[in-house]
Amino acid sequence: FYLICASFVLQVQNAEEFINQLGCQGQTSLKILSIFGNTGDGKSYTLNHTFFDGQEIFKTSASQLSCTVGVWASYDAVHHCIVLDTEGLLGMSGNQNQRTRLLLKVLAISDIVIYRTRAERLHTDMFTFLGDASEAYLKHFTKELRAATERCNLNVPLCSLGPALIIFHETQHTDVLGVSTRNANDILKQRFTDVGRIPQAFSSIMYIGTRTYSLPTDFSALRKVIKQHLADSSVRSPRSPHVIFNALMFLNEKFNSDLEQTIPSTFPDEYFTCQSSCLSCGSRCQQSMNHTNQDQSHTCETRCKYQAQYDNRYFTCKACFEKGKHVVIIPKMCSAGDSSWLGMVRYAWAGYVLECSECGIIYRSREYWYGNRDPVETVVRTELKHVWPGDNAAPLEPSNASRRLLDGVKYLSDTVGAYSTPSSRAMTAWIADRVAPDYWVPNAQILACQSCDHVFSADEKKHHCRACGGGFCDNCSANKKPVPERGWGMEPVRVCDSCFSKRASTDEGIGRAGSLVEQTLGPMAGRRVIEGVQSAVETLGFAMEYPRDIITDAARPGYWVPDALITNCHHCKQEFKGSDRKHHCRSCGQGFCDECSKQRRTVPSRGWDHPVRVCDKCVTKKGEL
């Protein structure tokens, strides 16, 4: 008879009508068996041949339409069992979510559950369905069944409320599980683990497989296992029809609200859209995958939320907003029309400015001696922006003011140095040649390293080997050893790699090193004085490097990567050595070598209205930086 209709309404009004429909008057203890599976897998056919000797108690049909809708029930007088036939999964149901919930209600009151499948190989959807059903049973139905148990005065431990699961697998062209040496139940446990499901709610799980070479299907093994479970009361005790009906009615009334009909997409957007998520609000980027390779920025229409750690605010002009325009305002040290030095003077006197491309200067932070109002209250609107991984978000403050001052001072010193360096280097080389030993090659004749043929640039230092007198680069003359045969005494001095590997004559060295007068007033005395002064100056220069680095780092804008974290060029990946200069792109804030950041562009979004250094990647971006 029809127990629950397609609208998920119970078709019997009370327990007496339920008993009369089943035809089980006088029975005080019954068990419930239900069957699940995909539509068209022969669930009704299996019940008819397992319990009713092939009689069509449950309707079967050759039609493409499902012949079982809702839940049908029948009573097996031989085994004293209520048999429930359910609607198949993956069918053309009006609301699959409500149908799945109905199946879980049936599973919750069942003592034995059969999952029928005719797939040649077990599908993942079976393990997923059973695992999710187990989790839902423990999470939602356990306490409700406890309440129903207390209401009906049923002395059954809570741990035994879970049904026994029988997976009935019929194949035609493939072997069933357990044909190999491995046990079928062990394979099932492993498959459940592989899909991330652990069916703890079922009191037992058993696999029954049969391979049908020719019809009819052999149900003898299934029938035998069912009889064993029906006869076994150690785990599941039989219950009266009144208790069964009350439990079903209780669950059906408890979980009966309407569910939204959602159809899962076979190809969701997550398969094809960018995987990046906003660090502030967690919303996903709506662009396609790898859109950054096409110089397309991340976008998301979802409104972001503010977090102080990211300071993801930005300003827009309030007057332009009222005119229907969206003009972003960046706090800057000076206006676009001011020169660097004039802008720094005005910044020191009147503070930072807010400049609109349409309205001009709309705010100065220290325009008046007192009573300066917050710009958010007067001239700008605050809006929020998404923070994407890898972005260097600049805080809402003129953070490049200190850097502008350093850049101006450096430009002045570099200009003076550029004009004075050639003459000073020429004078230094001339003095060094005058006091150099006779066997040294003059600096003017040294154009390339004698060892590696490296061509010297105009500002590169040339080193002399104290043993052979040749000119070398720093890498090829980094070793030191005593050269007494040349009058340098027993103190280690700079030598080239070739001379370092040679061993000088001991007797000659002792003879040359014996005269204190020659060491003090000999031909090497002038060079020793020059090297002593040069060493002292270089030591002082190294000592000045550290305070300069501290000042430079303190003046670093917030979106710049600290110098200490820059180990190689962000573009060409060339590793920085000790003497290599690290340059910051004013747009992205990353560190680059000089070759990869020679271009100049204005970067209004960062407060740089005059052409400043940008990397080769940012200079190719279209539009305003």
Notes on the structure:
The two termini are 74 Å apart. The chain has 16 helices and 21 strands. The protein folds into 4 domains: 2-270, 3-Layer(aba) Sandwich (Rossmann fold); 308-396, no CATH class; 424-500, Herpes Virus-1 (2-Layer Sandwich); 559-620, Zinc/RING finger domain, C3HC4 (zinc finger) (Herpes Virus-1). It is 32% helix and 15% strand. The protein is of the alpha+beta class. Strand 18 (583-584) and strand 19 (591-592) form a beta hairpin. It is elongated, with a radius of gyration of 44 Å. The chain has helices at 15-22, 43-51, 96-109, 124-151, 184-194, 220-231, 241-254, 318-322, 340-350, 375-378, 401-435, 497-500, 506-513, 516-521, 525-554, 616-619; strands at 2-4, 31-37, 71-76, 81-86, 112-117, 164-171, 204-211, 313-317, 328-329, 331-332, 353-356, 360-364, 380-384, 463-464, 471-472, 479-481, 493-495, 583-584, 591-592, 599-603, 608-614. The protein has a 7-stranded mixed beta sheet, sandwiched between helices. Helix 1 (15-22) packs across helix 7 (241-254), helix 3 (96-109) packs across helix 4 and helix 11 packs antiparallel against helix 15.
